[in-house]
Amino acid sequence: MASASEVIRRLSHDDLVVVFSGINDYDLNDISLTFRNIKHYITTNNHTNILLMKVPFRLDLPNSLSVNENISVLNRRLQTLTKAFPHSTFLGTLDNRNLFTTHGLHRNRLGNKLVNFQLAHLFITIFDQNLHSQFLSGGGISVM
């Protein structure tokens, strides 16, 4: 079985990697390290498209204000980073408390549906742009 790194090495500009992880995957005490790791990932994988999803807030902690401020800083830096690399895109999601479970660590059913809708909308937009550019370049569209 191939590792994730091997699979990603085989991808091309026609492919898309979606990086969507939970807050437990990040070291919020050192957001610079988290940022450097993500930047390294984006710069070393410039042979394929990368969609970086917004890091969700921690709504489960009693003193979540400082943690969420760090998350906001990280998200702003990541959004700026993706603007510098044409093969990467940042997709923000809503942090409305009503979109999370009672304990606040995970998205609820409505929150998950909203994220799925945002992803579907983005994919349809990309697909439409690719079809349009293929058609304008004389490639035509073939439907089977």
Structural features, described:
With 144 residues, the chain is mostly helical. Strands 1-2-3 form a 3-stranded parallel beta sheet. The model is unreliable at 139-144 (pLDDT under 50). Helices cover 48% and strands 9% of the residues. The two termini are 33 Å apart. The protein has helices at 4-9, 31-44, 64-84, 109-136; strands at 16-19, 49-53, 88-91. It contains 4 helices and 3 strands; from the N terminus they run H-E-H-E-H-E-H. The protein has one domain (4-136): SGNH hydrolase (Rossmann fold).
Give short descriptive properties of this protein:
Rossmann fold; mainly alpha; globular; three-stranded parallel sheet; 144 residues
**How are the strands of the biggest sheet laid out side by side?**
1-2-3
Gross geometry: globular
Largest sheet: 3 strands, parallel
Name of the CATH superfamily: SGNH hydrolase
Whole-Å distance between the termini? Answer: 33 Å
CATH class: Alpha Beta
Amount of beta strand: 5-15%
How much helicity do the residues have?
40-55%
Which oligomeric state applies?
single chain
User: What is the average of the pLDDT values?
Assistant: 83
Q: Count every beta strand, where a strand is a DSSP E run of 2 or more residues.
A: 3
Listing every helix as H and every strand as E from the N terminus to the C terminus, the arrangement reads HEHEHEH
Return the CATH topology: Rossmann fold
The structural class is mainly alpha
Give the low-pLDDT segments: 139-144
Put simply, the count of helices is 4
What's the layout of helices and strands?
Elements: H1 4-9, E1 16-19, H2 31-44, E2 49-53, H3 64-84, E3 88-91, H4 109-136
Parallel strand pairs: 1-2, 2-3
